[in-house]
Write the structure tokens for this entry.
Amino acid sequence: MSSDTNVIVANNFHPPTLSKMEKKFRLHHLWKLDEASRKECVDSLSGRCHFAVTASWSCDEEIYDLESLRLISAFGVGVDGINFDRTQAQGIRVSNTPDVLNDAVAELAIGLMVASTREIIAADQFARTNKWLEGPFQLGSSLKGKTLGILGLGSIGQSVAKRIMPFGVSIAYHNRSQFDSQYQYCPTIIQLAEVSDVLLCLLPGGADTNQLVNGAVFDALGPNGIFINLGRGNSVEENDLINAVTTKKIKLACLDVYENEPHISEALRSLENVILLPHIGSATVETRTKMGDLVIRNIEAFLENEQLVSEVFS
């Protein structure tokens, strides 16, 4: 692979991947430059650069001004950071990094289910503050016999379902359309929440999913219900969630994504019955390495006139 191949880097998404790319391509780091220098960089690459790499959830709009751009190879699955109006108008292809992170996200989902039903976070605090001297810790709840409702049963959701069923957990789901599956299909999100003990949100970002999970959903989930969001923060009406947790309309919430990352509202941070994580769904060394390799493989496939490994068709 020629090191003369120019690649524009929109943001600092994964340093090990960028270090690996430095050995294969000539990188131009847009994110390191001030506004004037970014424009100068883009103008200077016109006709000489056909590739951009970026985090899938955030992308500098300046790259679309590169008239010769033909491929955006995005690091991540959810591509809500990509402006598809611009890519379609300009004939720019887009790839992402699906499937290689299914295991990591599924592991985290199951970990949160166990942690929340068995009160592991509260138990840790109970032990640390020596409250055990005053009496035994409250009883948790078993996963066996519970129903997991999956909102957005794609490849990650199916990975979660496959792993959790041996625990004796039943699966229900809601998608825009039903597909042939052994799992219970619920035509609406409200119906899914009503049958769920744990509601797992795996919705992608974007206008189509904006604030689909709201107060009515939490009312349907009920006071013993647990809500987990490993999808995108915009899919949840955050004020409704805060109200549901504060007034104990639901038992607990576990969040890895937020409305305005990396900013987490003070209201959420102050609540004891909320488990907060800093968007670590795919954050394992193994997974991020595979994601980075897929970013590179898509560029290489384009250069070799081969089919992209994971093209996104919006």
